[in-house]
From TrEMBL:
It comes from Methylobacillus rhizosphaerae. This is General secretion pathway protein G. The lineage of its organism: Bacteria, Pseudomonadati, Pseudomonadota, Betaproteobacteria, Nitrosomonadales. It comes from the Bacteria. Keywords: Methylation. GO terms for biological process: protein secretion by the type II secretion system.
Amino acid sequence: MKQSGFTLIELMVALVLLALILGSAAPVMQVTAKRAKEQELKRNLWQIRDAIDAYKKAVEDGVIRKIPGQSGYPPNLQILVQGVENPRDPKKRKIYFLRSIPRDPFATDAELSNEESWGKRSYASSFEEPAAGEDVYDVYSLSSDTGLNKQPYKEW
């Protein structure tokens, strides 16, 4: 009487091959996930920096009142979302620069707000040693990790 089925050796070979295939796919999945987070970081940085520049341009164009002695950059990121009254508009409608503050995708502390997840650089500080101040000239990631391009996220 002939029985059909797999032998133990055939089953073991199939499991080893499956393990090798899955083991080689894991690093590819990790790189893909990191690349997606990097794309999100680039998009979020661009969005915030674009809003900061639009605020500065509105100040330069006289749409937003500038206090003498200040740089003209927003005092914080929240004002970009809350909006600023337009003195030229008869209905005194606000000008908004962001719908919401995006979160740094590499922020590890879940208790931080979206605004707190970013490092802020004032106009008075240098690129080499960014420091917060009276305004927000630029934002950067607080992550100490390095990107796939070997550049620290803080320098993006």
